[in-house]
Amino acid sequence: MEVEKNIQDVFLSLLRSALWGVPAQIPDGFSDWRSVAVLAKSQSVLGLVGEELMSCSAPKELKAKVRTLVMRTVMTHAKLNSVLAEVTAALEKGGVPSVLLKGQGIAAYYPKPELRQCGDIDLYVGQNEYARSYEILRQTGASMEDPKALTVGKHYHASYGQVEVEVHRYTEVYPFRKYDDVYQRASDAGMTEGLVPMSFGGVTVATPEDTFNAFFIFSHLFHHFLTSGIGLRQFCDWMMLLSARKEEIDHERLAKILTDMDMMKPWQAFGCVLVEHLGLPASDFPFYDPAENSRVEKILSRVLSEGNFGQERDVVTKRGRSYLLNKIRSFIGHITRTTVLLRLFPRQALRQFCHTLTSGLTKTKNGL
What we know:
By secondary structure, the protein is of the alpha+beta class. Helices cover 57% and strands 8% of the residues. It has 15 helices and 7 strands. It has helices at residues 5-20, 33-42, 46-53, 60-93, 103-107, 130-139, 177-190, 210-227, 232-244, 251-260, 264-277, 296-306, 314-317, 323-344, 346-365, and strands spanning 99-101, 121-124, 143-144, 155-160, 163-168, 196-200, 203-207. The strands form 2 sheets. It has a 5-stranded mixed beta sheet with strand order 1-2-5-4-3. Strand 4 and strand 5 form a beta hairpin. The relative contact order is 0.09.
């Protein structure tokens, strides 16, 4: 989905207005508000942009639809906070401390947290308490994933009605040992030292240490950019965290993590997107380098055209019933994307493609 320049500009102006309280710049005579709303929805920021759109000259019918979706975001936010408090309290009562990842913890840094579109709840409990956490949540009446999930992957799922909770034993796992060793050391420290407490429904919930959290949010964002696509909601999450916790982030330690993970250049390039298009002051971005601006438009164009988690990509919108044909289409899509990504981030894109290829072939062979 290619985005016209005038629609992109209005959309970004409304988003900056929602995040920073600056007046939106709308060209005289602009009328394609539906396309702005569609773009905001595909980027998972309709709650933010939608409220700003209410004060514009959009048609009444569109405003009514957007208002309904915004209210749904507000209600979902309240529901997730309620479930988060319930689950965290149950784990704590059972002797299992947890740490909230991403999501509702990051929402707290927005001017209006309730307007950030919610996903699921991600909680980290670590390897030692992983199995016990499963039994505790099962006793709360949650709909639990099959117990075999405890031995496969980095997390299992527990469902509370429409709210999905992912319980993690690892915050992330990198496919290459060299980088996974660096990451796990940073994660182990960031999940145990300097945790940042927040309150949800009167329950104290821990969130990661700030320096690790800054890297973790970016790492998640960049991973999905390389593999399937990512939306501006994740950019906004990263930006609001960096802005709110800038005094607490240890630049020296962060630089070492980024360097050891071979992610400093991607960090700086994506940071230019925050500064050039989303309104973050350059002084608030660690290691800002204007020399990386050359990649900004290509990054932004890919993000806007693919949608959050690649929902606008052909391999998603044109998915058929044939498993094999879907796999072939997905493989061709990965090759096409990789040829573009190699020009932006050659080492990182090549490593990710090699992992995706070997992993995909293994799953296809096993009929997964």
